[in-house]
Amino acid sequence: MSLTETSKFISLILRHKPETIGISLDEHGWAKVDELIAGVSKTRRFDMDILEEIVRTDEKKRYSFNEDKTLIRANQGHSVSVDVELKEAAPPEILFHGTGEKFVASIDEQGLISKRRLYVHLSKDYETAVKVGSRHGKPVVYNVKAGEMHRDGFKLYLSENGVWLTKKVSVKYLEKLL
Ligand code: HQG
User: Which of 132, 158, 177 to mutate to test the pocket of ligand 1 (most atoms within 8 A of CB)?
Assistant: First the structure.
């Protein structure tokens, strides 16, 4: 099995379904590394070296170890209710959200909602937003007036891996681009 496939499986475990391999996450989203390795090893060749390589080479820096590498968690993207101690921050004036054309009518009516995840994900540049949107079909990108949201009192968070997160974005802060 490829490293990418194993990484996707780990993302499923650490963000959505730890029970798949019979483990649980603590309130801050941490899984025990030895439990993760034991669980994932049942389905494929897997060990600490492979896990470290996945964490090191992940192009989106999806995962972090604690200091002594006994714990691991996903930096963002969860659907399970955990508190990964996100840092609130002042966003740039404009952020971007990429989505699929099929969601546009609904977004134009109700704004951005987080659906199955804990937060709406916002990208810092247009190109990244196009990539994120392409995962859902023909991409459409919105400008998000993040500075204005922040001044209006909405909280925005910057994850360890540079994704901006917020609970929802109402229509007044959205501007469709493409
Ligand atoms: C859409 C990837 C209808 C929303 C990426 C999105 C990202 C609405 C979809 C991260 C809506 C949810 C997250 C509304 C929002 N009506 N549809 N009112 N509001 N939507 O996958 O943002 O590779 O949960 O536009 O890089 O696509 O997994 O979120 O299209 O950072 O690490 O509902 O996932 O990272 O889809 O992606 P998702 P997302 P990873």
Answer: 132
